[in-house]
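Hello again, I could really use a second opinion on something today. I've been staring at a protein lately and its backbone has me curious. Can you walk me through what the tokens say about the fold? Take your time with it, there's no hurry, and the full record follows here:
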Amino acid sequence: MKKVPSTVYKGDLTEISFGRESGITLPSDYDNPNVSGAGDRFHFIVSAESESNDTSTIKLQKGKDNTPVEAGILAYPLGMLVGSELIFSGLSASQNFSVEDNFSKSGRRYTIVSDTRGADYTELVITPKMISALTDSPTTINSTNGTIHIMPFCTPSLDIESTWHTNANASSESVLTDQFAGLINTLSLPETKVDLKRMHVIGLGRDVAIQVPGRFTNTGGQFETSMHNARWLYYALGLESVKIGTSIQNASTYDLKGATAAGANMIIYDGSDTPPTLAGGATVTAGDYVFIEDAEVIPLHLHKDVGSSPEVFGASNVGPEDIVTQTQKNEIRRIVAIHHNTNATNSYIWLDGPLDFAHADNTDIGFLAHDSTSTGSPEMSTATSTYGTLTNPVNRVLFSQTHIPSFAFEVSIRRNDNQDDDGTTSEVISGGSTDAKQLTRVFRGCKVKDFSMVADTDAAVRLNVGFDAAICYTDTGRLETNNKGDRFDVHRVFEDVANTEIARKKAGIAKRTQKPFMFYNGTIELGGTTLGQVVSFDLKGKTGVKQFYTISGNKIADLATDQVPFGGARNASLSVEGKTEYELDMEIIIDDPTLYHQMRRAVESFDDVNKLVRLSFTKQGAGAASGRESMDIVMDDYYIVEAPLPIPEDKGPLRSKLKIMPKALRVFAQDTVFHY
């Protein structure tokens, strides 16, 4: 019997993945500062549009292979940048630019409302009109210095393998939304809703007289995942400091060239004749990692007194069992592009996420990569006597201060499983009987607004995450007039993104690490005592994130093929963190009155290792527990505000539902992921 393909969209063929949002920094002349003449190296040209449009056009030109701009083509999918913010730095009056366009001078921000490609250029239309362009009639301004900064929020990390073509069915466009989203049990997407304004007008009867579309909202996203690591807690808290073994980075380190600010998505390092290499001798390329080794110490929580002898994460023998109040500023980022300028003072590395910390000039950097052995990356032992033990583990502390990172969520649906990679000759295009009719969306500008970490005695540790998105990018290649097809090349995690052991490590789901933390992997300490009678707990957190809409209209025409309608003007333009709040509910079988006495006297638990609340989970294994995957959530400044003692009707044991209110929390984790 002939197999008939499905004619409906099916949940089992839905693909989801996520990625960090980093933005992109594009300095003029990044590709070869020793070559004279702007026409021979990366540069941009600014020109004015008509006054009525209140826009300027930025044309990107030149650029070397394997860099963010290659032969004028910016390595982003068509339309992906619409709605992203852009700022300038380093614009010179000597080149007819107005220095007022520099963000540091005037604070001017621009919004990208159109993103197009030509054979050898990329054009970004921005609003409002640049002051520089206002002086032109309409002469163009050619940059030989100056830098474009496309801001991280709503801008996924670029993929230099992304390939644009004039024909949709020949394109293979992508961003680095290639990370495993977790062992997700349920998922509700922040689906686009139109806030329709309906007006009843006096004198026009009882029916609606006028309907006008208002805001476009992308809110209400939520998922539940069984936790196989602590990754999503990074997006709920915001900051991450790491500690790695010295054996997995290269021996010869480079230095940062100039100080680097927190939030930077590009670093400059000292150039030399020799490009940087990995520990095994291979040349560093995109997809490898850079380790910023910064022993400078900062506080974990801004409001806390660190004391005279603070414990510092990153130092030896300091971990979740201690009152850790400070941390070193070590951090790891994946390299999305690297350009080494031989015999030049500046070489560039573009990162897959903004830096969490500022770093001084000449700070050491090293390079590392995942491989299939323990030589170059974390590895889990499979030997019977040491099963589960990690070689070269990554240790990290997660904590909260001023901000949380945004991320992008990629979702594709299709009717059947016969869709090949975009850009291949075998791609099934629209109209055939076996067409999968794939629809791909990337929800941009996602931020966690609340979470709930739950465990009980019959299941895995689960994390419920609520999030909103700002903008939804939709692949509209099937609506194009000629050569219809899928422009966006989706990430099918276990088919092509994590289909090898090395690729699985890069995606955050290393082989043998996929099992979740179970309730029997955990211990709970409260007040210096390990509680043996805990029935369940629920750790809740709120980030205070709120979306804001701004008055930023534009005159961009609306087309059916627009990946983001109306230039993003009807979507939220800001997503801002507010106050954080945490609470821990814990149900215990009562065997001691001590906790009740702490509650009734409102005893403050502060900076005392004997009063820590510590939720500890370590995965099963044969080796020492200290060497296996683990996750510790620690609170050291809290009150117990409720400790009821109800008398059960069934005459069984008394259960109390404790409510604990901490000021803040920190998370310690040990696993194989370089950067969450």
